[in-house]
Specification:
With 137 residues, this protein is an alpha+beta fold. It is 31% helix and 36% strand. It has a 6-stranded mixed β-sheet with strand order 1-2-3-4-6-5. Pfam families: Acetyltransf_1.
Length: 137
C-alpha cells in the first residue's frame, strides 16, 4: 500500500473533513515510530513510542464498509503495536462520529479525556474530540 493509495482511501472515507494528502502519509511513514497496517480497502496508521501506541487514523473505503474490515484492522494494529512493546492503546475520535465511537467501544476502548473544539468541519463547525484508551493486547 503506497502513500498515494492511502490518500485516495482516506479522501473517500473522510469526505466531510480534510483528508490527509499523499505527502502527509509519506512524511508520517518515514518516521521511525509510525507504522501502517491493512490494505487499500481499509488501513490503520499508528505510532508506538515506549509502552504506548496511538492510532493516528483508520480509514475504510465507503464501498467496503459493513464487512468487518475496520474491526479486523483495529485488531491487527493493536496486535502489531503489542508486538512492538506497547501495553496501552490510545486514540481520539470526533464526538459526533457515532459509528467510530461504537467501533472503538466494541474494541474495548473507554473515554479518558476530552479536547474541546479539536476537529473542524468543512462548514466551520468545531467538534470536540473524545480521548479513549485501553490496555493492550
Amino acid at each position: 500500500m503506497t502513500p498515494k493509495e492511502m490518500a485516495r482511501t482516506h479522501a473517500l472515507a473522510f469526505s466531510e473533513t480534510r483528508a490527509w494528502t499523499e505527502t502527509e502519509f509519506a512524511d508520517l511513514l518515514a518516521g521511525e515510530f509510525v507504522h501502517a497496517i491493512g490494505s487499500v480497502d481499509c488501513f490503520a496508521v499508528f505510532q508506538v513510542i515506549g509502552d504506548e501506541a496511538e492510532l493516528l487514523t483508520i480509514a475504510t473505503d465507503p464501498a467496503q464498509r459493513r464487512r468487518g474490515l475496520a474491526r479486523a484492522c483495529m485488531n491487527n494494529w493493536q496486535t502489531e503495536a503489542f508486538r512492538r512493546g506497547a501495553r496501552r492503546g490510545l486514540l481520539d475520535v470526533a464526538a459526533d462520529n457515532s459509528a467510530a465511537i461504537a467501533l472503538y467501544a466494541g474494541c474495548g476502548y473507554v473515554p479518558c479525556g476530552l479536547r474541546k473544539a479539536y476537529y473542524q468541519r468543512a462548514d466551520g463547525k468545531k467538534v470536540n474530540a473524545i480521548l479513549m484508551e485501553r490496555p493492550l493486547p
